[in-house]
Amino acid sequence: MIRFNEAPYIGKEFSYIEKAIRSGKLSGGGEFTDLCQKWLQEKCGDSAGVLLTTSCTHAMELAAMLVDIKEGDEIIMPSFTFVSTATAFVQRGARIVFVDIRPDTLNINETRIESAITNRTKTIVPMHYAGVGCEMDEINTIASAYKIAVIEDAAQGVMAKYKGKGLGSIGDFGCFSFHDTKNFTMGEGGAIVIKDAALYEKAEIFREKGTDRSKFFRGMVDKYTWVDKGSSYIPSELNAAYLYPQLLEADLIIKDRMASWELYHSLLSPLAEQGIIKLPDIPEYCAHNAHMFYIRTKSFKERASLISFLGDRDITAVFHYIPLHTSPAGKKYGRFNGTDEFTTYESERVLRLPLFYGLSAENVRYIADSIIEFYS
Question: How far is 106 from 170, CA to CA, in rounded Å?
Fold first, then answer.
């Protein structure tokens, strides 16, 4: 059986976890948390800092707190995204305003954003699908004109770039995921990138249950106390210790995944050239990170048949997001602005193929050959 995903493991994780155990500090905020944060900040460039979190969901929740989302505020985002993109704001009383996606990258359609803005709009949340950057220049221009924040959902975007800038470092905030389906993992985990230094300091407090504990550990206060609202968003050192050796080998992991991505693309290009399937569209100014390889079939029915066909050949292929605006909660907590021209149509055609660190070229060829056999 060829699984859809296998969590990355490079062989050094156990020794790093053992080091964390022997350090005597298993709670968050220790050596490995700091090392991961420093590595991420180097990749993100112009930011006040990066904080590791217990998940990308919690990174989004922190961003919502820092922007001070209140009851009745409106948040603009694509409907073709993971549920956490929306729930981080809904739990603070916000209404979600969904807009359509682009038919090429499946990212938020930047030309549909401005018409969705009202006097209640607080934030735009572009999600970088498959590690391919949204049109951030245009999005930031719109946000600046209306004085609203931009929170990048870069869950899939670690080490991917838009016009030379790292995804997650272009808006006011960026949120990463280190779930075991991502290029780098700590099982469950995430990180938030913060541009503003004052908000970075505030985020440290929110992340540490509303206390100034981080300042205490840096020797800036002689004791720590409760100073603001907050929650427990800091991961265990064991999680950070598992992640850090992967970050050190990030180039190796990306190279391995990219080889599989490019082999898929080469082998399946004849079908795309015949108009039978559609392959991922990568704008020339975007450098993706081989987070996923997907094809688009001609219809929902065809996709279901192909999934079944591949399953019979011990290949696990999966569909992706069901548009949030069509879900019970999406209807309750949000609305779709404008016309759903591409969101539902494209979501019913997307089929993700197995892609993970260590996937063999032999298996990629077998999967591609099976798809070709289906269509022949």
Answer: 19
13-248 and 250-375: identical CATH topology? no
Q: For residue 164, count CB atoms less than 10 angstroms from its CB and return exposed for 0-12, middle for 13-18, buried for 19 or more.
A: exposed
What are the structural domain ranges in the chain? 13-248, 250-375
Q: Which two tokens stand for residue 291?
A: 């987070």
Domain 250-375 carries which CATH code?
A: 3.90.1150.10
Please name the CATH architecture into which domain 13-248 falls.
Answer: 3-Layer(aba) Sandwich (3.40)
Burial bucket for residue 49 (CB in 10 Å: 0-12, 13-18, 19+): buried
The closest alpha carbon to 170, from 29, 73, 87, 285, belongs to 285
**In angstroms, rounded to a whole number, what is the distance separating the alpha carbons of residues 282 and 260?**
16
Q: What is the pLDDT of residue 219?
A: 74
Residues 340, 21: Cα–Cα separation, whole Å: 51
DSSP strand pairing (121-124 vs 149-153): parallel
Long-range residue pairs from 9-14, CB within 8 A, at least 24 positions apart, any chain: 9/357, 10/245, 10/246, 10/249, 10/252, 10/253, 10/357, 12/245, 12/249, 13/241, 13/242, 13/245, 13/246
| Beta-strand pair 334-336/95-99 | parallel
Which among 150, 173, 171 is positioned nearest to 162, based on CA atoms? 171
Specify burial of residue 339 (Cβ count, 10 A radius: 0-12, 13-18, 19+): exposed
Tell which residue, 62, 58, 51, 92, has the closest CA to residue 75: 92
- φ, ψ for residue 74, nearest 5 deg: -115, 140
The residues of the chain scoring below 70 in pLDDT are: none
Q: Quick check: 315 and 2 in contact, CB under 8 A?
A: yes
* Tokens at 356, concatenated: 């993970």
The 10 Å CB-count burial string (b at 16+, else e) for 301-319 is: ebbeebbebbeeeebbbeb
Rounded Cα gap, residues 50 and 28, in angstroms: 14
In this predicted structure, what is the pLDDT of residue 46? Answer: 75
